[in-house]
Amino acid sequence: xxxxxxxxxxxxxxxxxxxxxGGLHCGVKTKNPDKKDVAIIASSVPCxxxxxxxxxxxxxxxxxxxxxxxxxxxxxxxxxxSGIANVCAEGGYAAAARExxxxxxxxxxxxxxxAVASTGxxxxxxxxxxxxxGVPALAKLLSRSAEGSDxxxxxxxxxxxxxxxxxxxxxxxxxxxxxxxxxxxxGMIHPNMGTMLSFITTDAAISHSALVSALHHAxxxxxxxxxxxxxxxxxDTCLVLANGLAENxxxxxxxxxxxxxxxxxxxxxxxxxxxxxxxxxxxxxxxxCRVSGAKxxxxxxxxxxxxxxxxxxxxxxxGRDANxxxxxxxxxxxxxxxxxxxxxxxxxxxxxxxxxxxxxxxxDFDETLAKEVLSEHxxxxxxxxxxxxxxxxxxxCDLTYDYVKINGDYRS
Length: 412
Known about the structure:
Blueprint: E1 7-9, E2 19-24, E3 38-53, H1 61-69, E4 74-84, H2 92-107, E5 114-121, H3 128-141, H4 146-155, E6 164-172, E7 175-184, E8 197-202, H5 208-220, E9 226-227, E10 237-242, H6 256-278, E11 286-294, H7 297-309, H8 311-318, H9 325-332, E12 344-349, E13 352-358, E14 361-362, H10 367-373, E15 378-384, E16 390-397, H11 401-408
Parallel strand pairs: 4-5, 8-10, 9-16, 11-15
Antiparallel strand pairs: 1-6, 2-3, 3-4, 3-10, 6-7, 7-8, 11-16, 12-13, 12-15, 13-14
Helix pairs in contact: 1-2, 2-3, 5-6, 7-9
């Protein structure tokens, strides 16, 4: 077996060899002139590419364009705007094409090698002229440094309060392989083979089929296990670009080296996904739900995701109320068969652990200690669902007054 140790490193999407990135205010966010609103990530050489996207029937024209660009499995750059989602807007597809063309011209690349992504308000027309005016200056700012990744990460944010960016390094056959990623998302997050917006770069040499498989596996074990508000975005896009500059022997699906890469990619995506859940709009708590004792992993995921998606449970966590009945209620409508008489529930955090349910029945517990446990930012709900051998972990956040405030005046 090769050395598969994963090490987290700096520089985000610019950590892998040959990648450049940056962000600039071009004028899409007219009310926030100090905020970057367009990002570009590019490779010095063509890349094998793969993507996963929203399952919403209403989709951004940027998603439609990028899916078409991915048909040959190759890309070299991506341009992203925040502020306007380019969904259900007049001339949206033409605007997406113009956005990609502007980046291609500025970078000296074929138009078909540039993917496009958008995020923001639905139904409003994209100010494509502002993007076209700003892209030449943005292209000159692209950097291989942490500053470049930071700029791109900031430019894709909407209601996010913090940037999400990581990079990892692992040894594959004596070659140092790096994977970098950035993501955005704070609300309208309940993905289904999509990830809000996330862009991943790697210098690994890997076959296209292996890259597709690795991305789908990573998304299933990370982004598809989070929920902020139960709403699947119209724009969910996750792209991975692999340029092969690490010069490792090409990774083929099923090899030990492939699984090392898949593990590193999944670890990166899990970090990003947890940050997305933690930064949910108005959130004051990260909720981790761990389910064990399920009959299958699929059952464990369904149960855990039902719990972290429950508005009643999320509101209880916000109120520091150990209302475990809401957990069993959410489990009950998850579409999974289980014996409630075998269910146990604990809450835990850095402040301690409180057992609230055993064998489907409530326990007497110290309400003061429970409130202390639930006053920490990171809350864990541990559930034993039965006597099975399968387990899973999903992540969400609490539901607060600020979530309503943010979404009550989002456009204004």
